[in-house]
Design a protein that fits this description.
The chain is elongated, with a radius of gyration of 17 Å. The chain has one domain. The protein is mainly α and 95 residues long. Helix 1 crosses helix 2. 58% of the residues lie in helices and 0% in strands. The chain contains three helices and no strands.
Length: 95
């Protein structure tokens, strides 16, 4: 994907920058969440430990929560999961 230049001083450019920064921050947050959930649940082997407590997952949904976190972080951290890295590389102005 080619580099996309935009002016973050404009209203929509600022909104673009906010959105991109949110994606970058969110990816880091989800990676940390996966690491903590992995420790708590023995990498998903005991997903009931994710229910209630610090994670706040509803009873009976620990396995689904673990699966979702693994799927999302795999998508966001692979070399170019779903085009995510190419997209960010083309539109992140470093703000």
């Amino acid at each position: 994907m080619a580099r996309i230049n935009y002016d973050s001083a404009t209203p929509m450019g600022a909104l673009t920058q906010i959105g991109v920064n949110g994606l970058i921050s969110g990816r880091g947050d989800l990676v940390r969440l996966r690491a903590a959930a992995g420790i708590a649940s023995n990498n998903g082997a005991n997903p009931t430990t994710l229910e209630g407590g610090a994670f706040g997952v509803a009873a009976g949904q620990g396995a689904a929560f673990w699966s979702a976190i693994v799927s999302i972080t795999d998508l966001l951290t692979t070399a170019d999961g779903g085009g995510y890295s190419s997209f960010l590389g083309s539109i992140d102005n470093g703000g």
